[in-house]
Automatic annotation (TrEMBL):
PROSITE patterns: PROKAR_LIPOPROTEIN (PS51257). This is DUF4136 domain-containing protein. Residues 1-21 form the signal peptide. It comes from the Bacteria. Keywords: Signal. It comes from Flagellimonas spongiicola. Residues 25-185 form the DUF4136 domain. The keyword Signal applies. InterPro entries: DUF4136.
């Protein structure tokens, strides 16, 4: 029984660690756009200046975007094919967990103060309330000639409120990497 509790505890901890670190990505694009013609990019300063995050985090995001675009064969240019802008949103999430996992000192309907059932701790009763910041990072790709949005990716995930700069940079890189996996879009092949 003790082994079952430990395995279950580790499985729950692993699940919460994975679920908290993942980034959910959604992308949308103009199906009439030929993304194969785009080879160069520049940042759209007007849009980036409006993003409501610190200037340091903006720099981190832009560096991560530069790295991802370079790996995809795009070059930064003064006369770009596309402009890249960012937009951010964040919200505080409150999670309430009912920790009534079991019966504490009762087992099978019988009270026995020396045998613990599935409840962990002193009876396993009570609620835990946790708050976390969930953020959305939007990356917009705008056709530089037409001044039209042609692709948008959004990553949603928990932001690590950490004082460790390395962890913050790694999390930002993870967000950007997951979002830009969807760019450029691969059009669906029509089946005949």
């Amino acid at each position: 029984m003790k082994n079952v509790k430990l395995v279950t505890l580790f499985a729950l901890a692993g699940f919460f660690m994975v679920s908290c670190s993942s980034v959910k990505v959604v992308s949308d694009y103009d199906t009439k756009t030929d993304f194969g013609t785009y080879q160069t990019y520049a940042f759209y300063k007007t849009g980036i200046d409006k993003a409501q995050i610190s200037d340091l985090d903006k720099k981190r995001i832009l560096r991560a975007i530069e790295a991802e675009m370079t790996t995809r064969g795009f070059a930064k240019s003064q006369k770009p094919d596309v402009l890249i802008s960012i937009f951010t949103k964040e919200r505080e999430r409150v999670d309430v967990y009912n920790n009534n996992f079991g019966w504490g000192g009762a087992w099978g309907g019988f009270y026995n103060p020396w045998v613990w059932g599935p409840g962990w701790g002193w009876g396993g009763y009570g609620n835990n309330v946790s708050t976390r910041t969930e953020g959305s990072l939007y990356i917009d790709v705008i056709d530089a000639n037409k001044k039209e949005l042609v692709w948008q990716g959004r990553g949603i995930g928990t932001l690590n409120n950490t004082s460790k700069i390395e962890k913050k940079e790694a999390r930002i890189k993870e967000f950007v990497s997951h979002i830009l996996k969807e760019y450029p879009p691969i059009p669906a092949v029509a089946s005949n």
